[in-house]
């Protein structure tokens, strides 16, 4: 009897042990998965010195101000106010600002950003690329996506240039239109002081609007948010926007031969192109790019690589100096001084404003954007009777009509006859 109890007791223990083992096997969690591998290094974040966004803000503010100017003047004071506003830029600062603005435009191109971020992940590759870019800004043109980014830049700068040029052309036309109004023929008061003020306004640096600079910097770092003034859908090679491209350009004399249009000097008249070119004209985007475009792309590339932060501010600022744009804008200032020095009636000041402040400045921006761009009308050539050439230029410099001679009173005429 005792043995039977013992056997039953141990049998129960064995059964309980087996059950516990089965329960344990059923409830134990699987072993944890191995940890995920560490992410590949992404390289330094996109960085751009505030000196670049500050310069771009000055440029953008000036373009917004002058591109909407109209030739609407009620008196001499209105002319002087608009002249002062438009002439108030320092050539180096405006040229630098154009390149800085173009760099931020280039940073909006996704293809350019993605390719450069790929280079940024490897320290050695990134350092080698930075070295090449700093040694030769034109090197940037061979990088993947640079051609599309360059297209954006050309479109943005040329659009700005044309908007300023067109505003100037309208103002210049006003110089002819208002000559019928008596007040426009009156001489400008304090002409020498007005010329001195123009020279002072041309060497005074414009202040930076911090909010505008901050918005441009945010657009550069994020790669989105900047809306340029280009009115075409051709920015990244896509189909034209609905309605087509509304902006036209005049080809340069280098790409368009002069055409004989007359055999008699009396029949030569100013003409405009019969088949104007458009933004997506291929030669506008041909290499070699201008200094301004190459330098803008280089600044953008350094920033996207993460090598354009405050520590490189001085280097980036030096890249803003394209040379050609500064010389062009400085020459427009000299032409303005000469114009104001000889201008006397109010309508001549309007001519100086339209031609040498607005049109010349717009032309300089066009030249900074593309080697194949000019806003000047085509000069079509004809021939005089003696076989020499005669150009059908636009209207010549304004020359006031000689004053009409006053008629002598009838009594004085009679007295003169008696004598």
Automatic annotation (TrEMBL):
Renumbered to this chain, region (Disordered) spans 229-260, 387-419
Polar residues bias spans:
229-238
Q: Signal peptide location in the record?
A: 1-26
Please identify the protein, giving its name as recorded.
Uncharacterized protein
Query: For bias kind Low complexity, which ranges apply?
Result: 245-260
* Biased amino acid composition, Basic residues: 404-419
Q: Is Signal a UniProt keyword of this protein? A: yes
- Keywords assigned by UniProt? Signal
Q: In the UniProt record, does the keyword Signal occur?
A: yes
């Amino acid at each position: 009897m005792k043995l039977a109890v013992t056997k039953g007791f141990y049998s129960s223990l064995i059964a309980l042990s087996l059950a516990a083992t089965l329960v344990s096997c059923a409830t134990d969690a699987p072993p944890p998965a191995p940890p995920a591998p560490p992410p590949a290094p992404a390289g330094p974040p996109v960085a751009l010195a505030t000196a670049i966004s500050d310069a771009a803000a000055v440029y953008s503010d000036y373009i917004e101000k002058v591109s909407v100017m109209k030739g609407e003047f009620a008196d001499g004071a209105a002319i002087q106010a608009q002249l002062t506003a438009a002439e108030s830029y320092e050539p180096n600062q405006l040229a630098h600002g154009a390149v800085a603005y173009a760099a931020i435009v280039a940073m909006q191109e996704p293809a350019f950003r993605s390719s450069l971020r790929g280079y940024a992940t490897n320290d050695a590759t990134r350092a080698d690329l930075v070295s090449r870019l700093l040694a030769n800004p034109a090197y940037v043109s061979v990088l993947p996506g640079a051609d599309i980014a360059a297209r954006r830049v050309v479109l943005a700068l040329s659009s700005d240039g044309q908007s300023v040029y067109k505003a100037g052309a309208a103002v210049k036309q006003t110089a002819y239109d208002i000559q019928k109004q008596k007040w426009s023929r009156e001489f400008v008061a304090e002409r020498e002081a007005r010329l001195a003020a123009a020279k002072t306004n041309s060497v005074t640096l414009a202040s930076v609007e911090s909010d505008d600079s901050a918005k441009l910097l945010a657009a550069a770092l994020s790669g989105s948010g900047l809306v340029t003034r280009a009115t075409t859908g051709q920015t990244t090679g896509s189909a034209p926007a609905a309605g087509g491209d509304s902006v036209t350009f005049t080809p340069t004399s280098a790409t368009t031969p002069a055409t004989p249009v007359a055999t008699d000097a009396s029949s030569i008249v100013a003409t405009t192109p019969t088949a104007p070119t458009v933004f997506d004209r291929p030669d506008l985007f041909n290499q070699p790019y201008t200094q301004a475009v190459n330098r803008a792309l280089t600044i953008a590339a350094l920033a996207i690589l993460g090598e354009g932060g405050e520590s490189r501010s001085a280097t980036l600022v030096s890249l803003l100096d394209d040379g050609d744009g500064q010389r062009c804008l400085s020459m427009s200032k000299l032409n303005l001084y000469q114009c104001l020095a000889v201008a006397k009636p109010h309508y001549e000041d309007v001519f100086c404003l339209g031609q040498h402040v607005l049109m010349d400045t717009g032309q300089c921006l066009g030249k900074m954007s593309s080697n194949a761009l000019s806003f000047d009308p085509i000069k079509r050539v004809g021939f005089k009777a003696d076989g020499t050439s005669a150009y059908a230029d636009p209207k010549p410099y304004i020359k006031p009509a000689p004053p009409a001679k006053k008629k002598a009173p009838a009594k004085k005429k009679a007295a003169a006859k008696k004598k």
